[in-house]
Amino acid sequence: MSGEKKSEDRTAVSDEILFRSAELAEDVKKLGAKLEKKYYVPLAEEAETKNADAKCYEEAQHELEVLHDTAKSILQSYQTVTAAEDELKSRAHDTKRAVKRKIKVFNPPVNGAIDLEEERKAHFARGMNLYKLLLLLAVGSFAGVIVEMLWCYLTRGYLESRRGLVYGPFNLLYGAGAVLLTMTLYRFRNRGYVWSFLGGFVVGSLLEYLCSFFQELLLGSRSWDYSGMPFNINGRICLAYSVFWGVLGVLWIKDIYPRAAKLILKIPNRVGKTVTVCIAVFLALDAAVTGVALARWSMRLDGKPANNAIMRFVDERFPDERMERIFANMEFGEKGE
């Protein structure tokens, strides 16, 4: 009996919308009959008598405009309600999962809890501002190298450099991927997995293609080539890795991002902005030096001598042996043959 009373006392935020939508559904059912009486019959009679009524056509045109606007409004309402349904379902699922899992390593923070803590602390990197994106760039650049090195060891039995910069275990491709995935998927962080998968699939594939294209255009080199894999596009991307990017999108926004955001929350406000700027400056300088070193390496492979003090300094600091260790998978097409 108490269970029935409890059930009767339950109210939902969307109860009013449900009631009004039921009324709308009843009105829509009557629409066909009303249209038949006002337009379908008169128009059929005009067709039969060959006697056109300008007023009927004018009213029908206005009716069409109203129907179009109505359909658009109902579609927008449908999209809004289904999005709310998806978000509530996802938030409840994420919270339930976090509560049930007892092993901390398998229990990432819930995005909704991260959002709430960021707002309550007025944190310098709350939401998706520039400071957070710069920190995610650094975290992604570092984590990507470590993960790929471990993957290489597990699948091939040896460690090999997966760095993309000359100083430190960083690869800006992974960092840029982390930033782009965050910017794209942040709005879906509290939504279902489908949106995260699709976003990761598209963004990751686009990033990989553009990075490969501009690396070859500017440096004449390639760091990967999928020409031997099915459903590839110019060897720059392929279906298998695009699906991998989709899975990574889900893993990123539901697991890795909240863990990274939780760590960022531990950085005090008073020093956070300074630390972030210093990290960003270091990565920018590292990228600039890397660009010069790669360009000079390409020139050496072409047999071009150093014609100034800067190039001679680059040759001394970044000889071929060092560059080959750092960029173990880089190929310069015919230059290296």
Explain how this protein is built:
By secondary structure, the protein is mainly α. The protein has 2 domains: 14-106; 111-336, no CATH class. 73% of the residues lie in helices and 1% in strands. It has a two-stranded antiparallel ribbon with strand order 1-2. Strand 1 and strand 2 (237-238) form a beta hairpin. Helix 7 (193-219) packs across helix 8 (239-265). The longest helix has 47 residues, at 54-100. The chain starts with a helix and ends in an 11-residue tail after the last helix. The mean pLDDT is 88.
Estimate the mean pLDDT confidence: 88
- Placed side by side, the strands forming the largest sheet appear as 1-2
Low-confidence stretches: none
- What is the percentage of strand-forming residues? under 5%
As for the number of domains, it is 2
Q: Please state the structural category.
A: mainly alpha
Instruction: Name the assembly state.
Output: single chain
Number of helices: 11
Order of secondary-structure elements: HHHHHHHEEHHHH
Helical content band? over 70%
Rg from alpha-carbon coordinates = 29 Å
Describe the largest sheet.
2 strands, antiparallel
